[in-house]
Amino acid sequence: MRALSEDRRRYGIQSLLAFFFFFIKLALAGGEEPAGKWSWPVPAEVPGTWYEATVPDTLDLAERAEIALNVLTGALDPNYNYEIFFHTTFKAQPPFMGHECTGLPTNNPKFAESLVMMREMSGSNFNRDIETHMMEYMVTKATGADGLYYSLKEGRPWHGAGEDFANVYGNTRYLLAMIAWHHFTQEPAWKSRVDAVINRLSAIALQKDDYVYYPVSNIGEWFSWGRQTGWLSKDEPMTGAPGEHPTVLYLGPVLRGLAKAAEITDNPNIRQLGDRLVNFIKKPRHWNAEVEAKHVHGPSRAHWCYHFHGWVAALRGLLDYAMLTGDADLKEFVRDGYDCARNYGIPRIGWFPEVTNEQTQCESCCIADMVALPIKLNDAGVGDYWDDVERYVRNQLVEQQYIDADLLRKVSQAGAVRKVNRPRETDERVIERNLGGFAGRAMVDHDSNPWNMHCCTGNGTEAIYYAWEAITRFHDGVAQVNLLLNRASPWMDIDSYLPYEGQVVLKNKQARAVSVRIPRWVDKSEVKVKRSGGKSEPIWSGPNLVCTGLGADEVITITFPVEERIEKAVLYGTEYTFTFRGNTVVDVKPRSQPAGSYPFYQRSHMRTGKAPMKTKKRFVSKVMLPW
Predict the structure, then answer these.
(1) 518 assigned to some structural domain
(2) For 516-522, what is the mean pLDDT?
(3) φ, ψ dihedrals at 451, nearest 5°
(4) Segments forming the whole domain that contains residue 500
């Protein structure tokens, strides 16, 4: 945290000047630029308001988003068109970042979407010039005349192919990024670019019977279309089991891009492509557990095994598409798949294995998927998984975000001395530039080899946004509070004293009523409500505490006891003992944190019973990105 502040002081003025000079250049250019050029304005400031408040010094996802802006811009390489350094190794002298083939085609688009989300949450303009340069390259250089986003061969020795290629999954993430930028800028030019990608993805899909698919192709990144050669192979891909390719990971999320695109375009290819792709992804050969109970038909119940991130990412795509089409059976299928996912790892804290049938660590992509999926299941009306979401977020998700520069310096000192392989690698301010990133893989209580795969950073930062957006929603004068976490919103502010104290304070702005979901661990008979105005008594509706007749600026204080409790879980033969306060882990035993590791759950201060307070500036965004 200290290193991040020093970095901002050092580079803040330089970044801001560069940012404004860039847009002055665009303004002076005047007129309409040729097709394929960056020609639309971006708000100089994130739309919203700031105010000062004294609040509990407890988990604030907006603060985590502000830190994440550091890595989302710091991990880009200005010498190579702001391509992502895909991996970061901290346990080395010096720590270093390196390029890989998969960085540009599949992960720069993730960062493009995440940056918009993090700015909406935090209001920060940190390193906007770097973000702008990355987007300018992606839109004006890497996007082809056919609309697809390409990984370009020229000048990139780690390209991994003999020609430019467009990855199907990467173009799906590019769709999501452009949709986010459309909402952020309100610039209609993004719509034509979204349509171009959809049309081209539809055109290059291979059709057979009632389904379509994309082949592995083996050019650069899996499932990629060569600019000159097209598909090098047209063979139908298999399941993604050991020794095969991760088919559902690369093709399932295409459905998510199509479903989101329907918010801004009525392109008929959305349904024509989407319906047939669902038929392919739901093929029984893609859905089987390693072992099934007798007479249980796993494929019809979305049972699966092996690559955790792959299958849950596919479930997310299926669910988004089911919500678009109103397919109730498909929603139930996804719910069954989520329930299958909860059997792996330690779901009570959000620890999920990278591979289910091997002894592997927790990839941050897995946690991110498992934050997003239950939120959407709640929204789809096929379950109540809010306690799951809160447990995942409060525990393993935020623990696997690197935010302590001093700890990372100690990690580096425990590493071997090595020479940096330039230009593929760099050792320039690696720790400072990567604060806010997410661990590639980690154990329950520590990361023994602190290391980023920035696919995890792209997905982890977006999970922060998903949870933050879901904390509270507002419709027709009614505020819904789903998660007892801090958030400032246009309609109501939530101040959470958890896990120190069982107290949540709601500060009304616009709502005439509020419904607060009380977690399962709380004894409803012990809940007390104090209102600064209004006479109506709160009522219970299932797990929701409802207050009506709210006045402007009314304050509602909800209190309940918080007692420490013990929960146990076994992973790979080790029995872990977790101490919880509410949904928050405050201690874990045993601890196996070898030298050079990055420790987790250093939370003894959360057991004091009194939440610390702080005065800070809060940002309330005027832009709400649907996801």
Answers:
(1) yes
(2) 98
(3) -160, 135
(4) 476-562+617-621
